[in-house]
């Protein structure tokens, strides 16, 4: 079941009561669950925010929106793994299938929300990683840290390395791929780490100088070697997308020191098809 409720309150009352009246097909428990999972929004002082507390007392004129999708709300995400806590930001392993941040349909399957719950601290997204991919992600815990660290990503001062298992035997040595993505410049470098004659796959390392949407996936597919499990640019497989963000290196604007983060070996393996 998927439905959207959009109402403006005509009288003072609790959020759960207003939504329940507007959506009689949904039980109060289902509405409460959806709200707790970030699927309800309200407009407060000109800002559109998630409303999680079902018993919140609201005044007339408040706009409430509920985005109810039974399939989305039923998802049970794999938990992220805290690798380092540096105070103003933390380093995490994001598993396959976990979103970087939520959507209007909920945020319980997002790294940002799960970290917020686990640490009980404010959380700010610094960068993104495809939901289908896995690997290193940084989460900031104050706005200034988020802004400073975001500049490292957008300013191309960060070394980002990925591993991918691709279809076919690919022999590459620091191969430059300079192919625009959606009309914007995109540069990747690809090197082969391992060839598997048995199942005709290759393990490659990719470093990127730009961060366009699906850049690595598009570039490898364009070379004729799509990533295993890439349902968009290749084909589905019995394993998730075999793309892993495993290495970050940059001059930290907070500590003023060079930092290097590597994914532990036990979290850094890629499966064959």
Note down, in words, how this protein is organized.
With 273 residues, this protein is of the alpha+beta class. The protein folds into three domains: 73 residues, Structural Genomics Hypothetical 15.5 Kd Protein In mrcA-pckA Intergenic Region, Chain A; 75 residues, 2-Layer Sandwich (Pseudouridine synthase), CATH 3.30.2350; 88 residues, Pseudouridine synthase (2-Layer Sandwich). It contains six helices and 16 strands. The strands form three sheets. Strands 7, 8, 9, 10, 11, 12, 13, 14, 15 and 16 form a ten-stranded mixed beta sheet that branches. It has a four-stranded antiparallel beta sheet with strand order 1-6-3-4. A hairpin with a 3-residue loop joins strand 7 and strand 8. The longest helix is centred in the middle third of the chain and has 12 residues. The protein is globular. 33% of the residues are buried. The mean pLDDT is 94.
List the helices and strands and how they pair.
Layout: E1 2-8, E2 13-14, H1 15-22, H2 28-36, E3 40-44, E4 47-50, E5 57-58, E6 63-69, H3 70-74, E7 81-85, E8 89-94, H4 111-119, E9 124-125, E10 134-140, H5 143-154, E11 159-167, E12 175-178, E13 187-196, E14 201-208, H6 215-222, E15 243-251, E16 258-262
In short:
With 273 residues, the chain is an alpha+beta fold.
- Which regions are unreliable across 5 or more consecutive residues at pLDDT < 50? none
Strand content: 25-35%
CATH architecture of the largest domain: 2-Layer Sandwich
Q: Give the biggest beta sheet.
A: 10 strands, mixed
Taken in chain order, the helices and strands follow as EEHHEEEEHEEHEEHEEEEHEE
In total, how many beta strands? Answer: 16
- For this structure, the CATH topology of the largest domain is Pseudouridine synthase
**Backbone shape:** globular
Helicity range of the residues?
10-25%
Number of helices: 6
What class, by secondary structure content?
alpha+beta
CATH superfamily of the largest domain: Pseudouridine synthase
The level 1 CATH classification of the largest domain is: Alpha Beta
Distance linking N and C termini:
34 Å
Tally of distinct domains: 3
Mean pLDDT across residues: 94
What's the Cα radius of gyration?
A: 22 Å
